Amino acid sequence: MQLKIALLGGDGIGPEVLAQSVKCLKAIEETFNHRFEFVEAPFGAIAMTGSGRPLPDETLALCQESDAILFGAIGALEYDNNPEAKVRPEQGLLRLRKELGLFASIRPIKMFPAFLENSPLKRNIVDHTDLVIFRELTGGIYFGKKTLSEDGTTASDLCTYSESEISRIAHLAFKAAKKRRKKVTLVDKANVLESSRLWRKTVTNIAQSYPDISFECLFIDNAAVQMMLNPRQFDVILTDNMFGDILSDQGSVILGSVGLLPSASVGLENAMFEPFHGSYPQAKGKNIANPVASILSSAMLLQHFGLDEEANAIVAAVHKSFVKKVVTTDVLGSSKYGTDYVGDFISENIVESDDNPSINDENIGLGKSTII
User: Fold this and answer.
1) pLDDT for position 197
2) What is the mean pLDDT of residues 19-29?
3) Whether residue 217 has pLDDT greater than 50
4) Band of pLDDT at residue 108, cut at 50, 70 and 90
5) What secondary structure, in 3-state letters, does the chain show?
6) How much is the pTM?
7) Catalytic site positions
8) Domain extents in the chain
9) Domain 1-104+261-372 in CATH 3.40.718.10
10) Which CATH topology does 120-255 take?
């Protein structure tokens, strides 16, 4: 297969972890006889130093013409520490999602057996955790009308959703559940918010079209508690933009590091793959950033194009790095290996399934043929 992949390293540790994903995809090229064309472009704060815009027109054009996008991270301290800044790097990410129609963020949270000791939660709570969050990505409060009074003392953010916006991601979530454990949990705040009541009404109606799928609704406050008490009860979580943002980060607590969580952002024509950690500017250039979330995001890219064996090969190599404790400082108490070494180890252990009988073992992490 031939694919053109746009590389948006972005800010902070983004370029460092993205480089490890590229290593792994090049190993996939060689091992499975594919051809990937990688094209880099500026994005985020680093792009603002040249153009004044976090998403230059040239970068957007590249993303629109590419088969897929691999993204690193976005954000810089000079903007985080300046509440008066009119333009922020994160605005580029919001615009990119909107321009490309990336309405669904797919965020798997999977506990690898070799990683149980890394979680701050008790083993009996997190063992066998395997859930995926479907977060609506281009609507809601993040994109609604925003106002600030002239005296700067009153502000508002409008949360708006349409039935069609809710329906398109709901169908994706139910279809994913059919390939998993056949359960969908809608997370909302329907006891307070009118937008949540529309979510509950719309998704409840859609659920009737999937009679083989178990469907339940939870308020966001209860869902947040349940994720910490018993994450194994969840299969597919469906929710809006803001609640999905919160629950995704909470999922990093289950695994013990935000550096382990990949994601895909998909639309009808475009797809972007990214770790959902931040830019971690304090670690920039120190070779300590965890590349696993980025590398697993590249596995999701392969899976998106039906390259399931190739995706499995990456996850098997990641699993081997866990077993051998070839990990970065944020996990398993290790301080021996850096970002580059972990990336090298994983890329060098990518092999075809015929050469590695453990690749399809259910304990490795993908299940039958799918990360999500």
Assistant:
1) 98
2) 98
3) yes
4) very high
5) CEEEEEEEEECCCHHHHHHHHHHHHHHHHHHHCCEEEEEECCCCHHHHHHHCCCCCHHHHHHHHHCCEEEEEECCCHHHHCCCCCCCCHHHHHHHHHHHHCCCEEEEEEECCHHHHHHCCCCHHHHCCCEEEEEEECCCHHHCCCEEECCCCCCEEECCCCCHHHHHHHHHHHHHHHHCCCCEEEEEECCCCCHHHHHHHHHHHHHHCCCCCCEEEEEEHHHHHHHHHHCHHHCCEEEECHHHHHHHHHHHHHHHCCHHHCEEEEECCCCEEEEECCCCCHHHCCCCCCCCHHHHHHHHHHHHHCCCHHHHHHHHHHHHHHHHCCCCCCCCCCCCCCCHHHHHHHHHHCCCCHHHCCCCCCHHHCCCCCCCC
6) 0.90
7) 142, 189, 221, 245, 249
8) 1-104+261-372, 120-255
9) yes
10) Isopropylmalate Dehydrogenase (3.40.718)
